[in-house]
UniProtKB/TrEMBL annotation:
Entry's transmembrane regions: 172-196, 202-219, 231-253, 259-276, 328-348, 354-376, 383-403, 409-429, 441-459, 465-481, 486-504, 524-544, 556-579, 585-606, 618-636, 648-666
Keywords linked to the UniProt accession: Membrane, Transmembrane, Transmembrane helix
Region feature Disordered, mapped onto this chain: 53-161
Biased amino acid composition, Low complexity: 128-137
Pfam families per UniProt: DUF2339
Composition-biased stretches (Pro residues): 68-93, 142-155
Protein name: Predicted membrane protein
PANTHER family: BLL2549 PROTEIN (PTHR38434:SF1)
Domain of life: Bacteria
Organism for this UniProt entry: Williamsia sterculiae
Length: 678
């Protein structure tokens, strides 16, 4: 009997359909994995091509395959195999199973030692929150990242290798060609005139035509491949030919006055420097500027103020050619142009116009400082640039040889203020890339400013006034720069100069034998003695407070400060005594006061050691040393020199002070022992 309608599927059909569905899922997963493997192979091929194009020829293929690829933008295909797309595990019983041995076969296809693609691990499907905002998984490179070795230092090229280099041979031939051509131009302009060959107009016109032709040939050659060396040589030869033409028209044929020749030469130099900046060639700039520095005195009939003025203008006008360029040698040439003729004028004292010389010195120094500030961020040779700045200020520092000393002192002070302002602004900005003022550069400028102040003091002050100012500067600098080693060293230098000046004005024999002085000299000597002693104490204190000062150096500094203070104290009391009481009783009273003040200072040091336990050994040693010096002076000098009541008072006062200090110090030690024992 036949039944119409739908019948329930047999159990076998349901099992077959389940198998088919499972196989379909496995084939779909396998298809996805094969597609990912194909993409990985494509990326790997790109990696090998990229590394093969950039790696050295001797690298093994395994090393190139392991080299990491640089990061790519997100829009481009990833340089490394993308991570497998996360997928949710299928229902139980339908987990895909890869073909057995597939991974082993893949690894077997990789050469030994190479790092192949890593097997794709199962990852659970991410949560919706992770998909929305969480970080996406990223794939790492094949194997550990490889760091390229540092390139070896290039070996020094020998002379034979240079001969094989075409550029060296080309430069040598170009230099020889420039020299030979210029000799020919000189023969055309000078020897032809002496022999009567050609008219002067023809000679000068021929030189101009030759200069223009050389310059045009250089410009044309520069646009061709490998023509840079020849273009620079031809252009420099053309500029030099034009200079020689100007010299001939000015000095040989007298067609142009001196200022006309200077203007014509300046026009040639402007064209040459413009071309040098356009071609970015410092060599061409030097070949344009240096010959003009040599020819300027020829055009002005010697090194005089017109030549100095022209070269100053040239040095200032050539500064824009250096902007944005690291042309340190051109800067040195500019400094030489501004300072060398001016220094010769100062030494020879060939000009009677002191105000013009002073203005020229100030202009040269200002130009040197401004050039340093402008060019410092662009150069890598900052110390060399700072030293060139020092050279540019030398005429101003030596201007007291010709200029009025007060004018010279004023210019020195202005220079010091300018330099210190530059240093302070650089420290305030703090960015070395903005100002270029590194620590060595700032130190050079500080030394230059200190030297300028010292020379201003020497120029404006005489006698003990110089000592007073220098000692005051040393004291102020020691206090202001106590946190910087360099400033403390400069303060020591100033103090030594002041001490030597004081010793020259107040030698030891003035303290042994009474010398009558005027009231003004006595006052300045007394003030200088006080400042010398104060500077010694302040310098020793600042060095002792510094953490980088060794203990032995601290002791030596305090010993030196004690010696200086002893000499300064004796000079002060003797000078005041002679000024108030004359060379008789005043001199004796001064020495008596010096001895009493010395033993009082020793008592003060020993008394201070009672309260400062950390520095007690140093204070006790200093106090005992000063006391020994005072007692030695009492018996060796005062006993033989003082007479009458001066001798009696000195011995009684010193003895009483020693008794009081001894008993008080002993009682202090006993009290400390009791406290320690308790």
């Amino acid at each position: 009997m036949t039944h119409h309608g739908s019948a329930d599927p047999a159990p076998g059909d349901a099992a077959d359909r389940a198998v088919v569905a499972r196989l379909a899922g496995e084939f779909a997963a396998l298809s996805e994995r094969l597609a990912a493997a194909s993409a990985d192979l494509t990326v790997l091929d790109r990696v090998l091509e990229h590394v093969g194009a950039t790696a050295p020829a001797g690298d093994p293929p395994v090393r190139r395959a392991a080299s990491p690829m640089p990061p790519q933008p997100s829009a481009a295909p990833p340089p490394w195999p993308a991570p497998p797309m996360p997928w949710s595990p299928p229902p139980a019983g339908r987990a895909p199973q890869g073909p057995a041995g597939a991974h082993t076969a893949w690894q077997g296809s990789v050469p030994p030692g190479a790092v192949g693609p890593q097997p794709m691990a199962w990852r659970p499907a991410p949560s919706p929150s992770a998909i929305a905002g969480g970080p996406r998984p990223t794939a790492g490179p094949y194997g550990p990242p490889h760091r390229a070795p540092m390139p070896p230092h290039p070996p020094k090229t020998s002379f034979r290798d240079r001969l094989r280099d075409g550029r060296f041979v080309g430069k040598a031939l170009a230099v020889v060609g420039v020299g030979v051509t210029l000799v020919g131009v000189v023969l055309l302009l000078v020897l032809a005139a002496q022999a009567g060959i050609l008219r002067p107009e023809v000679r000068v016109s021929g030189g101009l035509v030759l200069a223009a032709a050389l310059l045009a040939a250089g410009i044309r050659l520069h646009g061709r491949a490998g023509g840079r060396i020849g273009a620079i040589a031809l252009s420099a030869t053309g500029m030099a030919t034009a200079y020689l033409d100007v010299v001939a028209a000015t000095r040989i044929y007298d067609w142009l006055p001196g200022w006309g020749g200077l203007l014509a030469s300046a026009a040639v130099a402007a064209a040459g420097l413009t071309l040098a900046r356009r071609w970015d060639s410092e060599h061409l700039g030097l070949l344009v500027l240096v010959p003009l520095i040599v020819l300027a005195p020829v055009l002005t009939a010697g090194i005089n103020l017109p030549a100095v003025t022209f070269l100053l203008v040239l040095a200032a006008a050539s500064l824009p050619a250096q902007l944005g360029r690291d042309w340190i040698f051109l800067h040195i040439a500019r400094i030489v142009a501004a300072t060398a003729p001016l220094a010769i004028v100062l030494v020879a004292d060939a000009s009677g116009d002191t105000w013009t010389v002073a203005a020229a010195c100030a202009t040269a120094a200002l130009l040197a400082v401004v050039s340093a500030v402008v060019l410092m961020p662009e150069t890598r040779r900052r110390v060399t640039l700072a030293l060139a700045t020092v050279a540019g200020t030398l005429p101003l520092l030596a201007s007291a040889l010709v200029v009025d000393r007060y004018v010279a002192a004023g210019m020195d002070v202005v220079l010091a203020i300018l330099l210190l302002g530059v240093v302070l602004i650089a420290q305030r900005l703090g960015e070395t890339t903005v100002t270029g003022m590194t620590e060595p550069v700032r130190q050079i400028f500080i030394v230059l400013a200190a030297t300028s102040v010292l020379l201003a003091t020497v120029a404006a002050c005489d006698g003990q006034v110089l000592t007073v100012v220098v000692a005051a500067l040393a004291t102020v600098l020691a206090v202001a720069g106590r946190h910087q080693l360099f400033a403390r060293l400069v303060a020591v230098g100033f103090a030594m100069i002041g001490g030597l000046a004081f010793l020259a004005q107040t030698p030891l024999d003035h303290l042994i034998v009474a010398v009558d002085t005027s009231a003004g000299d006595a006052a300045t000597t007394a003030i200088a003695a006080l400042l010398i002693g104060a500077s010694a104490v302040v310098i020793a204190w600042t060095w002792s407070r510094a953490e980088d000062t060794d203990v032995e150096i601290r002791r030596l500094l305090w010993v030196a400060a004690g010696l200086v203070c002893g000499y300064a104290l004796t000079a002060f009391t003797v000078t005041v005594g002679v000024a108030t009481g004359g060379t008789g009783g005043g001199f004796l009273a001064g020495h008596m006061a010096a001895t009493i003040c010395g033993i009082t200072a020793a008592a003060g040091l020993l008394w201070a050691s009672r309260r400062r336990t950390a520095e007690r050994p140093l204070l006790v040693g200093a106090g005992l040393t000063v006391a020994a010096a005072a007692v030695a002076k009492l018996f060796l000098f005062d006993l033989a020199t003082l007479d009458g009541m001066f001798r009696v008072v000195a011995f009684i006062v010193v003895g009483l002070i020693l008794l009081g200090v001894g008993s008080g110090y002993a009682r202090t030690l006993m009290t400390d022992d009791r406290v320690t024992g308790a």
